[in-house]
Amino acid sequence: MKRDLDRLRSKRFDLLIIGGGINGCGILRDAALRGFRAALVEKGDFASGTSSKSSKLIHGGLRYLEQMQFGLVHEACRERSILLKIAPHLVRPLPFLIPIYRGDARGRMTIHAGMMLYDLMALFRNTKRHRMLSTKDVYGLEPDLARSGLTGGALYYDCRMDDVRLCLENVFSAGEAGATAANYAEAVSLIKRDGRITGAVVRDRLTGESFDVRARKVINATGPWTDSVTRMDAPGASARLRPTKGVHVVVPQMTGQHALLISARRDGRVFFVIPQQGYSLIGTTDTFYDGDPDAVDVQPEDIGYLLEETGRVLPERGLSAEHVVASFAGLRPLLTAPGQESKLSREHAINESASGLLTVAGGKYTTYRQIAEEVVDRIAKGSELPSRVPCTTASTPLFGGDVGNVEAFEAKASKSAAAEFGLEPDIMLNLLRSYGTCYREVLALLRDDAVGRNRIVPGRPEIVAQIQYGAQQEMVRTLSDFLRRRTDLAFSQANGADTAHRVAATLGPYLRWDDKQTDQQVRDYLEEMNLPTHAGAASR
């Protein structure tokens, strides 16, 4: 898909969506599949805000049962089932182990009751039903768990996901259906005529050029930036959000193939230790944040909290700050309400201003498709843009997602690629789980350039052809786009200056960077990652 600014300038759209996170991208896909002329602008890269800084889970929301949010849990369980069908290469079942310790905020009886209710909310159609475990069973699964005070555990199932690619594939699916989308295109003001919003002034952040985008309806789907866009329409508008900050750290792998759900002793909230491509993702924190959404960052106390609580349950691992490979912070755009951070609702709200700005606020990743359906339903049933075309997003596979039986698909594709290109199994698995059926487009690049099959970093599954594919087909515009969002290289031990220079040298010619621009891209990326900016130049 191309970043088509000429089309944005010249065409009048039915819908203009501001915000390229998961809600905005989901709305774009739904609208395009229903025949609306839809466009989306995002001031950074797609998913570069909250949508790339999640726990990488599609889940029913076990902890929301404590808050009696049964409707939200049931909806999330239903949506989890849908995503397993329309994006099976990106959304996969994952077992979760809950070790239960004496003194935990939730005892064995509470956990058991919650597990039974969770299965009920999923109408007993979960990947597998939960089971309660003895102490011996728990040690058999995770022998490095702390033994003192352990009274048993529980095993249940949710799903892991590739959050960025799920966002991207909504954009690419929309593009196939005729939609237009551009990253690094910032809506700087709204256009009004006779008191009604008729579009937005958009600035290309790569060139500085500004232009008008005309649309019959403008949708604010900017997540943590919701209130900023709302105030473009009505400067005195009250805040709709009460954001909370969530921090994650990446460390060498701490567990087997199970994720852990841990109750923190300090405050009783739960967090996860999740296996992630040879590493463990630990998170998340949950603290109120009232600063600039563009300036959210990781503080030492955030890391300390996660390492302390994880180390208490996995003491044999000797976890310390030296083990942290990477960290990241994102904001949850929660609806304004009194209460403790971790108890704020993940419900969403859709509101329309007097001038016609439609704003979607709140929600959670798992329910993005349902949120998008509600937004487009509201527009389709209105007087401005009536439509009788039904929503098909629950049954239409995402871009690359029409794989059928995912295990059979992976086995057949891996065998074929090994025979034709000699690619090793881990490389093929990475391609299949990143691109789904579109892996063939990446492999097609190898026929003209044998170098494309080389690994970018020894020991990692990413190959050089992915750099070309990202630049030409996936709207990669910066080094960070590729290292942080089109791949996971930034969240591995290959995240340093050597890799940055190596990728920038290959990516630069596709994006017409000169030497000065290439070096600046490397510096920008290293600063984003809080890594030294002076090392690695000699490795180019």
Provide tags for this entry.
18 strands, alpha+beta, Helicase, Ruva Protein, domain 3, ten-stranded mixed sheet, 540 residues, D-Amino Acid Oxidase, Chain A, domain 2, FAD/NAD(P)-binding domain, 34% helix, single chain, 21% strand, disordered C terminus
3D structure, described in words:
With 540 residues, the protein is of the alpha+beta class. It contains 16 helices and 18 strands. The strands form two sheets. Strands 3, 4, 5, 6, 11, 12, 13, 14, 15 and 16 form a ten-stranded mixed beta sheet that branches. Strands 1, 2, 7, 8, 9, 10, 17 and 18 form an eight-stranded mixed beta sheet that branches. The two termini are 30 Å apart.
Number of domains: 3
Number of strands: 18
Strand content: 15-25%
Helix content percent band: 25-40%
Q: What radius of gyration results from the CA coordinates?
A: 23 Å
Task: Outline the biggest β-sheet.
Answer: 10 strands, mixed
Low-pLDDT stretches: 535-540
Query: How many H/I helices?
Result: 16
What name goes with the CATH superfamily of the largest domain?
A: D-Amino Acid Oxidase, subunit A, domain 2
User: What do the pLDDT scores average to?
Assistant: 92
CATH architecture of the largest domain: 2-Layer Sandwich
CATH topology description of the largest domain: D-Amino Acid Oxidase, Chain A, domain 2
Q: What structural class do you assign from the helix and strand content?
A: alpha+beta
Shape: globular
Q: Cα distance, first to last residue?
A: 30 Å
CATH class of the largest domain: Alpha Beta
